[in-house]
Amino acid sequence: MKGRKLLLDKIGISGIETFEIYKKNGGYRSVEKALKSMSPEDVVEEVKKSGLRGRGGAGFPTGMKWSFLAKPEGVPRYLVCNADESEPGTFKDRYLMEHIPHLLIEGMITSSYALGSNLSFIYIRGEFMWILHILEKAIAEAYNNGYLGKNILGSGYDLDLRVMPGGGAYICGEETALLESLEGKRGNPRMKPPFPAVKGLWGCPTVVNNVESIAAVVPIVNDGGDAYAQIGIGKSTGTKLISACGNLARPGVYEIELGLSVEEFIYGDDWCRGIANGKKIKACVPGGSSVPILPHYLITKTASGENRLMSYESLADGGFLSGSMLGSGGFIAFDEDQCIVRNTWNFARFYSHESCGQCSPCREGTGWMEKVLNRLEHGEGNLRDIELLEEINKKIEGNTICPLGDAAAWPVAAAIRHFRDEFEWHVTNREESQTRNYGLCKEPVTA
Amino acid sequence: MVKVTIDNIEVEVEQGTTILNAARQIGGEVVPPAMCYYSKLPGSGGKCRTCLVEVAAGSSADPRPMPKLVASCSTPVMDGMIVKNKTSDRVHENRGGVVEFLLANHPLDCPVCDQAGECHLQDLGYEHGSQKSRYEEEKRTFEPIDIGDTIKLHMNRCILCYRCVHVADNLTENRVHGVLNRGEQAEISTYIENAIDNDFSGNMIDVCPVGALTDKTFRFKSRVWFLKPMEAERSCNKCSGKAVLWMFGNEIYRVTARKDKYGEVEDIDGKPGWICNDCRFENKEVSKWKILGPRVIDRHSVISQGKYETKIETSTKKIN
User: Residue B229 pairs with which residues in a beta bridge?
Assistant: First the structure.
């Protein structure tokens, strides 16, 4: 049964953002179940069984991340929710927090109990100020109803929950930069190791999880990890929020069961209903701006001819040569009229603007790529610029402190890999490239 | 104690030592260059990425190679680790890339820069840089500013190593300067045009690996290789009073701390030999100092080639 919803099932209920209606519709069951009948270890065990993978982009198993948390005596532990969603194309967490804030609060309480945190934080990006107010209202309601504060539901477990706004920097979505920012410092990523699970917020063991991962703990505790693991395909279990945007007939936030075919997601009546204005799809970025772009012939089928599915494995099939990543679920579609060079420049501009400037390959490399792409897009490039871009890419990738360098390098590398013709056309037809777009790229002839 | 092999040389070091410091215990060619790491400044390192090395085997317990190059200044060694620095082509290639990045927006104004001759970026560029820059874009520029009455900041030359920030964090009560903005636009600056005014601010000049922070009392006075470094001391109630005088005839042109071959201040009586601003800026008469003798500078700098003792030795060795 495709189309089961675990997170957004109650989204249509009017007044679901209030505690009363949320509770009436089965909300806060997981808190009651966990605090009254389960030990913290039981909750961790259920999350492990569920096979839930981090929904922020990297896809690291959440249960395993939780089990790495160091537990030294007499040292507080923290759970921090990463709500600094700022990847271009990704807006799923925003949708969830705006419409059903209590789901996140509930997940935070259950997860904090599992990890033994008595003070947890939701770090939200500064531009989401109105959502901060929504969350604070929801938290106040939870306090008033005894779900937060001292001795929750008479279980003896205490938890305080705070929402902290960032200053609006993409880099603060990187977990260690987030912790620096939360401590009131400049949001520069830290050197790893030590990892946050050992030395995180104020030097104490800390788990940082994405909004969606924490929300997913609610159905996992309610129905059990095994039931959750039944949904999905292979190691991609459960449901995933996908924020679809670009030239789609019906863009928006969808909750899909992992394993849905990409073709159905793009063209299905329940989902995006195809490309807007009856045009053809030219390319697609399936997981937020930092994952490799796919040309039209690799979107619905993998290089080996199999159907491509919305799952961690299938989207990554073929590695970076012919695959991409599920990432954070920011699904961006481009129709035949879009210019890949311009789009690549746009992404490069974003990463150049958002680099923290701490380590040299990223600071200088992202700015350099942006300038070269700017020239190419505006008809001032040379053929050797394309090789130069590839070179810069290789020198950034893997040589930086945090993944922002990789995230900046991958989209440029993939765009050149699949759309080299279009880049070259921008150089050889400088004037024409300023007035019209290249159109669909050619499919490589397979022998 | 753990055993680690760097460029086929085995060395035994204490647990928790970083790869860079293990290499420094071996010494010589296997030591990776470091632009931001400064052993006397806790918290420094990891940023410039010039010290990247290849780890061919993680440890004897887990001999898998590390997939990425690692920053040797902030990666602790494990027992049985095998590290490749000079012997790795990958390291050579990527370090060249880092140097290209560092030089991309650098003004390359060595002919008028006071740091020339003792500049780590110059050395690095000589060793790893290419003859011609591929960076055709307009370089980012800043106006030079005074950050205090004795220190000049040339942000154009800065490589954002954060060493001066760590000096303020480690040696003074209140840091009034830091990094403003981010990415390519990041710059060292004082808090709303504040002047840096503390007794140890001059050490920022000493730790700066490039010519971004220069001594205003020495600016444009002389090229460093024309000066004779002399070890000297004076009694000082703020610091050890042990310094190096850079002299021309009987005149003191500038005063710096005593630095080792890695450009870091030497330990004096078990503590880093930072000097105070009184010794550095206010006492430039020979009568104020007790001169102990010439200072041997053990630095393989491009411009000091043939000038200082060790270089003469190595070049004669090469001839023989």
Answer: B246
Is B178 found in the same domain as B192? yes
Minimum CA–CA partner of B69 in chain A: A399
Residues B49, B27, single domain; the answer is: yes
> In this complex, is the C-beta atom of B105 within 8 Å of any C-beta atom belonging to chain A?
yes
Q: Provide the shortest C-alpha distance from residue B216 to chain A (in Å).
A: 27
Number of domains observed in the structure of chain B: 3
Residues of the domain holding B268 = 224-319
Assign residue B61 the CATH number of its domain: 3.10.20.740
pLDDT at B191: 79
Dist CA B191 CA B198 (whole Å): 15
Is B191 in the same domain as B134?
yes
Mean residue pLDDT across chain B: 89
* Residues of chain A predicted below pLDDT 70: 1-2, 446-447
Contacts of A357 in chain B (CB under 8 A): 160, 179, 181-186
Amino acid found at A268:
G
Amino acid identity, position A262: V
Shortest distance between the Cα of A195 and any Cα of chain B, in A, equals 13
For the stretch A39-84, pLDDT in tens is 999 999 999 999 999 999 889 999 999 999 999 999 999 999 999 9
**DSSP classification of residue B282:** I
Calpha distance A318→A322 (Å, rounded): 5
Is B96 inside any structural domain? no
Task: Report yes or no on B154 lying in a domain.
Answer: yes
On whether the CB atoms of residues B255 and B236 are closer than 8 A, the answer is no
In B, which residues are within 8 Å of A360 by CB distance? 47-50, 98, 101-102, 159-160
Q: Which residue of A has its CA nearest to B93?
A: A395
The confidence score (pLDDT) of residue B312 equals 45
Predicted-complex ipTM score? 0.90
Give me the mean pLDDT over the B278-295 stretch: 94
Q: Is residue B260 part of a domain?
A: yes
Q: Is residue B45 part of a domain?
A: yes
Tens of pLDDT along B272-286? 999 999 999 999 999
Beta carbons of A295 and A281 less than 8 angstroms apart: no
Q: Do residue B119 and residue B214 come from a single domain?
A: yes
